[in-house]
Amino acid sequence: MIAYSIVIRNDQISETGYDRLVASSEHVGNKFNIQKFEAITPPYVEDTLKKKALKWNYPAQGKIIDFASGLEKAAYQTRDVKKRIACALSHYMLWLTAINLKQSILVLEHDAMFSNSIDFQIEKTPFQILGINNPLGCTRKSKEFYDNIVKTPSAYQPVPWIDEQKIPQGLAGNSAYIITPQGAEQLKRLIKDYGLWPNDAIMCKQLVRRLGVTKKFYTTIQNLRSTTTT
Questions:
Q1: Which three-class secondary structure state does DSSP give residue 182?
Q2: What is the three-state SS of 22-50?
Q3: Tens-digit pLDDT profile for the chain (230 aa)?
Q4: What's the pLDDT score for residue 78?
Q5: Half-sphere exposure of 199 (CA within 13 A, CB side)
Q6: Where are the strands (E) in 84-197, listed by range?
Q7: Which pLDDT score is estimated for 77?
Q8: For the chain, what are the domain ranges?
Q9: Cα-flanking dihedrals φ and ψ of residue 83, to 5°?
Q10: Cβ-based burial of 176 (10 A; exposed 0-12, middle 13-18, buried ≥19)
């Protein structure tokens, strides 16, 4: 398993979260190392967008209907929108890494924490992207999200519906997922077609084929102050 954690350099919250994440992985017995992936930060957003020929296409305030996809795009609570863009770019760069390596990778945000060791290979499941995180406390309607997963018998299952179909619905928190090169190629194409959205919005079941979750939860989140919304 190739694993990366998105870490903001010299940020105490992010660095501490990463250290706890690594310790939790060792505690549950994972045999892989978790490499630091240096997060894109707000001062580098414009340059990165330009270099990658990307355009941010998501509202900073209110709600709009995206006519290309038919989905509702609702603004996130973010004091500095460049932090939200930086987060999306960090995930995007890791998707490119999966494509370039031609291997599946595990993507972790710095506030993830392992509760179980990884005991499966995504290539042996029907999915190209799999969320492994316990949804409780990680997403809107998290209890409904959780209940829908645990009542479904399949070990690997599609992302559940918890809202109207016009609202992008993806992984709980998007803080821990395994992605194949094919899944990453899908997301790269979607961003070319629709522009760059927050990573947990573009990675939704309405747009991404073979997007799933595990019934067994392998990670949860640490109680850290958000580095994106503040």
A1: helix
A2: HHHHHHHCCCCCEEEEECCCHHHHHHHHH
A3: 999 999 999 999 999 999 999 999 999 999 999 999 999 999 999 999 999 999 999 999 999 999 999 999 999 987 899 999 999 999 999 999 999 999 999 999 999 999 999 999 999 999 999 999 999 998 889 999 999 999 999 999 999 999 999 999 999 988 999 999 999 999 999 999 999 999 999 999 999 999 999 999 999 999 877 766 55
A4: 76
A5: 27
A6: 105-109, 112-114, 129-131, 156-158, 176-179
A7: 83
A8: 2-221
A9: -70, -40
A10: buried
Specify the 3-state DSSP secondary structure of 116: coil
> What are 75-81's contacts with CB under 8 Å, separation 24+?
76/198, 76/229, 77/229, 78/228, 78/229, 79/229, 79/230, 80/42
Structure tokens at 2: 């190739």
* Assigned token pair, 197: 């959205």
Residue 131 near residue 109 (C-beta atoms within 8 A)? no
- Nearest Cα residue to 215 out of 139, 140, 141, 127: 127
CATH topology of domain 2-221: Spore Coat Polysaccharide Biosynthesis Protein SpsA; Chain A (3.90.550)
Residue length of the chain: 230
Which spans in 37-153 are helix H?
Answer: 45-51, 81-101, 142-150
**How deeply is 188 buried, as exposed, middle or buried, from its count of CB atoms within 10 A (0-12, 13-18, 19+)?**
middle
Q: How far apart are CA 129 and CA 122, in angstroms?
A: 8
